[in-house]
Amino acid sequence: MTATKDQNLVHATKPQLLAFVQGIIGYPIDTYAIVAVLETYGLRDVDARERFGVENVFDLADDLFAEFQMRAKRYPHIPEHSKKKAVPAWQKFVLFYARGLFSNAPWALQIASLLLFGYAFGIYAKFDGKQVTVAGVGMMLSFLVSGGFVQALGRMASFYNGQGSYALTRQAYYRIWTLGVAAMVVSAFLLDGINWFIPLFPEDFLMIGLAYYVCCGVMSLSLTLFYTFNKHAGLLFSTLAGVCAMILVMEFTPLSIYVAHWTGFLVTTAVGFTWIHYILKKLTASMSKQQRDVQLPRLSALLPSVAPYFLAGTLYFAYLLTDRLVSWSLTPDGISLKLWIHAGYEMLLLWAFGAFSFMLPLLEYIGDDFAVRIQRTQERFTIRSRTEHNNSYIDRYMQYWLMVVGMSILVGCSVYAVYILTRTAATDAMFQRVLNATPTLARQVIVCGLIGYSLMVWGLMNNIILYTLSRPFDAVRSFLWAIAANAVLGFWLTRSFGYWYSVVGMTFGALIFAAFTTRAVVRALRQMDYSCYAA
User: Fold this and answer.
1) Which residue intervals of 329-438 are DSSP H helices?
2) Under DSSP, is residue 123 helix (H, G, I), strand (E, B) or coil?
3) Reduced to 3 states, what is the DSSP secondary structure of residue 120?
4) Are the CB atoms for 505 and 322 separated by under 8 Å?
5) Which among 275, 436, 425 has a CA at the least distance from the CA of 344?
6) Closest listed residue to residue 395, CA positions, set 382, 377, 418
7) Residue 82: CB partners within 8 Å, gap ≥ 6?
8) 3 with 19: CB under 8 angstroms?
9) Would you state the torsion angle of the CA atoms of residues 451, 457, 462, 464, taken in this order, to the nearest 10 degrees?
10) If DSSP codes are grouped into helix, strand and coil, which group holds residue 119?
11) Which of 103, 222, 83, 79 is nearest to 161 (CA)?
12) CB contact at 8 A, 475 and 517
């Protein structure tokens, strides 16, 4: 049994106190960290005397901390800070950027499947507009619901895994996965009910869309820990298994493309879930029995620390969907559906999103560099060098910003150059016929999308720093302002000039997001002395 807030820790045994403290803060850095947890959850001096035979909570914390120190010496799985050989900055950058690029391999696999066979997960070259809309809306809405669970799971798993608490990582994965899957299923029923009162789709098409919705959402939840453990090969293999299953169903059975898509999703989910289960089982088995018996605190105890990251994950996908929803809600004449995916808009933004996928790997390097720099910077400065200490972070942040700007210009210009070099009279005619876009309009959408996604990378870089400093609410507020700006400007422009102009709303929202997160980061870095002390 795990001690919880509901029990006020009064009736807990000492092993249960150890497990509870570890579940809340990991392995504590000193006695005061333990005292903070015990007093926060209701343990008093009188309880320490009556229950544990010590004078006060501080004496009890001393005993617990001594036990933690003994565990650290006894078991190698408990992380110990050791000096590592310094790796040249350029080598570190290449390593992290290459690893980030490799994480995009599943997307490259999908593109290859689309080019070779005419279909990929949720995509089919022969879909008509209604089918594209139903499948696309289902999949993109799934990220809105699963995104919060993915972010919360990533945060908890990273924390426990960094502490060597693999048993807690395993429990967090199964608990949040179960909650996420339940949320996907329940929300699917709610969407079906809403469709009865506000008919967005015919019932038969809605059922198809909800199948895409649940399958895609469960898959994203199941594969989350591949990113946490940096097991990108497992992610690629799981995706490959799903793609192969989809091709087998489509090419060698009379079943429909819908069944082929759903089979691909489910096979990817099953292979990925099994792979992660094996990783967690292997890590947990290497621990001592005492470490394996540690139990994850109840959700009520975890909620205050996890909820902000859940909100941030949900709002991130809400922002990415805002310009789409603004565009989708402007349906062509003669269409009975309330939402309609404009294929031309989506295909043009894919050019910009391609640049986005090449900029994101940079954030892996920045996140790791900032986390390492915190410890090294504290060792270089004394308490009397507070101003110099804080300014060093501001200087490093400017270097990060220049890296993002440089990468954005390089990648953006490369993508635009590819578009210009491949442009011919035939492609112009294709844009006009298939996408209903003139060459000038297509170029404007691509350029505006490139700017918007570049600003988004800047804001996400800020988010990484804010998350490292445990300031997720700054990110939440920034997302709210960005979504509002995106929706208001996008709605006015699309209703005044056409659905293509929703990309302007997206770009303006990204600018607001970058500006608000930058202000929050600079404010936090100017107080880094306090942040380091509080940590």
Assistant:
1) 343-359, 361-380, 386-421, 425-430
2) strand
3) strand
4) yes
5) 436
6) 377
7) none
8) yes
9) 170
10) strand
11) 79
12) yes
Rounded to the nearest 10 degrees, what angle do helices 31-40 and 57-74 cross at? 120
Give dist(CA 104, CA 219) in Å, integer. Answer: 16
| Residues 320, 321, 325, 328, CA torsion sign | positive
Residue 296: both structure tokens together: 């994850």
| Closest residue by Cα to residue 242 from 262, 225, 224, 227 | 262
Within 10 Å of residue 441's Cβ, how many Cβ atoms? 17
Tokens representing residue 202 in the block: 């015919």
Cα separation, 59 vs 46, whole angstroms:
12
Tallying the residues shown for the chain, one arrives at: 535
The tokens describing 429, both together, are 């005619």
Helices 14-25 and 299-328 sit at what angle, rounded to 10 degrees?
Answer: 20
Residue 401, C-beta contacts closer than 8 angstroms, at least 6 positions apart? 458, 461
In whole angstroms, what is the distance from residue 515 CA to residue 312 CA?
17
What's the token pair of residue 491? 């709605």
Distances (CA, A) of 217 to 38, 141, 145, 346, 352: 38, 9, 8, 21, 24
pTM for the predicted model, two decimal places: 0.80
Sign of CA dihedral 510, 516, 519, 524: negative
**pLDDT tens digits for the chain (535 residues)?**
344 443 446 667 777 787 777 767 666 767 777 887 787 777 778 878 878 888 888 888 888 888 877 766 544 444 444 444 556 777 778 888 888 788 888 888 888 898 899 999 999 988 888 888 999 999 999 999 999 999 999 988 888 887 778 888 899 999 999 999 999 999 999 999 998 888 888 888 899 999 999 999 999 999 999 988 888 889 999 999 999 999 999 999 999 999 999 999 999 999 999 999 999 999 888 877 777 777 887 877 788 888 999 999 999 999 999 998 998 888 877 777 788 887 777 877 887 887 888 888 888 889 888 887 876 776 666 656 778 888 888 999 999 999 999 999 998 888 888 878 877 777 667 666 656 667 777 788 888 999 999 999 999 999 999 998 888 999 999 999 999 999 999 999 998 988 888 999 999 999 999 999 999 999 999 888 776 655 5
